Amino acid sequence: MHLSPRIPTSEPIDTHQKALQVNLDPRRYGTFAEIGAGQEVVRWFFRVGGGAGTIAKSMSAYDMKVSDAIYGRASRYVCRERLQAMLDYEHKLNLDRLKDVRGDTTAFFAFADTVSARNFQGTNDCHGWIGVKFQAHPRDDDSQIIIHVRMLDNEAALQQEALGIVGVNLVHGAFALNHEPELLVDSLLDGLSTSRIEIDMIEFSGIAFRHVDNRLMSLKLVELGLTGAAMFAANGDVLQPSEFFHRKPILVERGSFRPVCNVNLDMLHCAHEKFTQLPSVQGKEVAQVMEITMRNLKAEGEIDLRDFLARADVMSACGMTVLISDYFQYYRLASYLSRYTKESIAITMGAASLLDLFDEKYYAGLEGGILESFGRLFKNDLKIYCYPLRDQTTGEMTTCENLEIKPELQKLYGYLKDRGGINDLDNFNSDCLNIFSRDVLCKIKQGDMSWESMVPPPVADVIKSRSYFEYQAT
User: Rounded to whole angstroms, what are the CA distances from 323 to 30, 217, 241?
Assistant: First the structure.
């Protein structure tokens, strides 16, 4: 099972044609409510002609008191809570007013966005929440798509233009591609590029998307390059990174998680214990995530969706938030995380991974090589916590104290260690040192039930109940 590639069309549909197609569909009728960057989306539907047959109402409520009076108070004005209030209010209004009159022939919708475009000083975070709530067919139950975008253009006018295009793509996709959600995701940046817009969250809900797994759609965002990373909670709900990480210290464990083993949880537990002792972290809620890279998911070629869902489910069974990223280099991961918090950031890894971190082949593409990469990685006082490795033959322990670094890099390593960038984890559970996920995976495939004692009980339950990782009941 693999993610479907985009099916090319002989004549790509541009923004003008998409808006016109919607306007010429006699079933579609609804409201556009836009706050923060002008009425950039509805403008397309007015401009192409035929808008009177599609647009019940177009509005903006820039003044906070006016917006509150219509949609109720919100903690912030550019947030998911405000977007949902807008969608619910406008869609219900259309149904209450019009369903008795034209409900048999009309599929109603409400489009909304709440956006922080570039301000006059150019000092704000340029992002927005965009959504459409709609009936796929007349008299149908509601369906909904919500996305979060980051606008990357340096000029407000360009940001507004990009917002208009992605909004039209969303509306058109909701109506024309709701039965093919992967193609819908792929169409969101038609007429744009990832240098202009990043889509870091998408959520499908409602009757038209009852079979959609939003975790797979998150994976699709990263695979297509629409974002560098996507997240979902243990219960499968998609998360928006800036809201999840907002003002929190962050602790990340990277791995393959095929499956999650006791050693993975011990590594995270030990690092959390050390991390929370830092003065900058004490008393604060730490955002803990398990991260898996696209490189890891594609290690055997194309992404296998069942394998991905197996990993996601065992991480979720441990109550963990999952981060999928395209940031193989750790300095890129650190840069991504520091975008969302000013608090401390830590990464925990095994001794073997720490040794790989000092392999210069991974930095050949950087002008400054390994020095540049480490400058980026540690520039915000990031901490690395190293979990020991025990040789299964000799019993010898490898820690960050005796890691065999190349002679020419030993002074650099010593400097990073002395200043607290690299830290040993000496609070480990020795029973976990003999556990390796590759061995557990082999035991599962071979029917050797000793693997059960090497993973958390909820993980064993998930593997057995869903026959993951080629498990077969005896």
Answer: 36, 13, 9
Q: For residue 211, report the phi and psi dihedrals to the nearest 5 degrees.
A: -100, 5
Q: Say what the pTM is.
A: 0.92
pLDDT digit string (tens) for 139-169? 999 999 999 999 999 888 899 999 999 999 9
Task: Write the class of the CATH domain 15-227.
Answer: alpha beta
Residue type, 41: V
pLDDT in tens, 319-364: 999 999 999 999 999 999 999 999 999 999 999 999 999 999 999 8
CB atoms within 10 A of CB 425: 22
Q: Is the dihedral of CA 261, 267, 270, 272 positive or negative?
A: negative
User: How far, in Å, are 32, 92, 168, 277 from residue 164 at the CA level?
Assistant: 12, 24, 6, 47
Cβ(42)–Cβ(58) under 8 Å? Answer: yes
Domain 243-470, CATH among 3.40.50.620, 3.10.20.740, 3.40.50.10420, 3.40.1190.10: 3.40.50.620
Work out the number of other CB atoms within 10 angstroms of the CB of residue 150: 17
Domain with CATH 3.40.50.620 in the chain: 243-470
CATH code 3.90.950.20 region(s) in the chain? 15-227
Closest CA to 154 of 201, 101, 199, 195: 195
Q: What is the mean pLDDT of residues 8-33?
A: 88
CB atoms within 10 A of CB 55: 18
Cα–Cα distance list, 156 to 38, 79, 468 (Å): 11, 20, 49
Tokens of 448: 């050797």
The residues pairing with 145 across neighbouring beta strands, listed in sequence order, are 132, 204
Report the distance separating Cα 432 and Cα 443, nearest Å.
16
d(CA 378, CA 374): 6
Residue 315 and residue 454: Cα distance in Å, rounded? 15
